[in-house]
């Protein structure tokens, strides 16, 4: 695994534009990783489905991806970094509809601000093996999808403070933006193996996540956000795996 130059259309420092989104949609559609029938765990037989949104966005005209830290009161994966999303229920018309619903419930982001760019594949199952997780790639606009301007006009940035205010306090402990330029930094990348056998990059985001301090009975304070090796706060596990698949498609790293 080594660092590569990103696709020519993708700038790691300039904001996303309409032209960028067109190119992203085409690359995701045409990617060999998106061909069906190749699963990292083809032996699993999940009984339920979930869906997540991988939300590209501009923040202060800086391109990146929006992440959340799961609330500590959740029954599973509490305190870990994830994409917005969750279990599909009977009211959802599709897996994508479920991902959009969960994004609105967790982060207060309305579907009319979300421009879906494609479906990432191959899909995987959760650690227990009883749920298939469907990942969708999208761009979150600061205002509306049909923005004015040319193909090269920077798209509107989201307001992180507003997302913070409207997040679900029960489900989301924190929200942060990972710039593409930071994602391409080799010092952040830790070679890991998904489910013990599939190589991918875990990403150190310790400096981007504001950890919540909790006082224990002995008077000492400990971090209650994130999980990683040697005290790092990392994007790892299934979230890290899907992020790694996406960055390989975009040639940010391989």
TrEMBL record:
<dbReference type="GO" id="GO:0015938">
    <property type="term" value="P:coenzyme A catabolic process"/>
</dbReference>
<dbReference type="GO" id="GO:0046872">
    <property type="term" value="F:metal ion binding"/>
</dbReference>
<keyword id="KW-0479">Metal-binding</keyword>
<feature type="domain" description="Nudix hydrolase">
    <location>
        <begin position="46"/>
        <end position="204"/>
    </location>
</feature>
<keyword id="KW-0460">Magnesium</keyword>
<protein>
    <recommendedName>
        <fullName>Nudix hydrolase domain-containing protein</fullName>
    </recommendedName>
</protein>
<dbReference type="GO" id="GO:0010945">
    <property type="term" value="F:coenzyme A diphosphatase activity"/>
</dbReference>
<dbReference type="InterPro" id="IPR000086">
    <property type="entry name" value="NUDIX_hydrolase_dom"/>
</dbReference>
<dbReference type="Pfam" id="PF00293">
    <property type="entry name" value="NUDIX"/>
</dbReference>
<dbReference type="InterPro" id="IPR045121">
    <property type="entry name" value="CoAse"/>
</dbReference>
<keyword id="KW-0378">Hydrolase</keyword>
<dbReference type="InterPro" id="IPR015797">
    <property type="entry name" value="NUDIX_hydrolase-like_dom_sf"/>
</dbReference>
<keyword id="KW-0464">Manganese</keyword>
């Amino acid at each position: 695994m080594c660092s590569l130059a990103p696709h020519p259309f993708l700038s790691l420092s300039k904001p996303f534009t309409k032209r960028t989104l067109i190119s992203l949609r085409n690359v995701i559609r045409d990617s060999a990783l998106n061909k069906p029938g190749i699963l990292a765990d083809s032996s699993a037989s999940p009984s339920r489905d979930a869906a997540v949104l991988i939300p590209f966005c501009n923040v202060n005209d800086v391109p990146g991806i929006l992440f959340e830290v799961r609330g500590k009161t959740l029954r599973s994966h509490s305190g870990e970094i994830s994409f917005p999303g969750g279990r599909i229920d009977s009211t959802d018309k599709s897996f994508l509809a479920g991902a959009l619903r969960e994004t609105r419930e967790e982060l207060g982001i309305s579907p009319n601000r979300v421009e879906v760019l494609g479906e990432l594949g191959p899909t995987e199952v959760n650690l227990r093996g009883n749920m298939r997780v469907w990942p969708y790639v999208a761009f979150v606009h600061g205002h509306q999808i049909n923005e004015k301007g040319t193909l090269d006009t920077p798209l509107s940035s989201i307001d992180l403070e507003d997302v913070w205010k409207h997040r679900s306090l029960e489900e989301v402990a924190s929200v942060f933006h990972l710039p593409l330029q930071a994602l391409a930094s080799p010092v952040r990348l830790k070679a890991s193996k998904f489910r013990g056998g599939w190589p991918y990059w875990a990403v150190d985001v310790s400096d981007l996540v504001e950890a919540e301090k909790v006082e224990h009975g002995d008077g000492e304070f400990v971090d209650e956000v994130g999980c990683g090796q040697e005290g790092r706060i990392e994007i790892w596990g299934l979230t890290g795996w899907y992020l790694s698949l996406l960055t390989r498609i975009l040639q940010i790293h391989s």
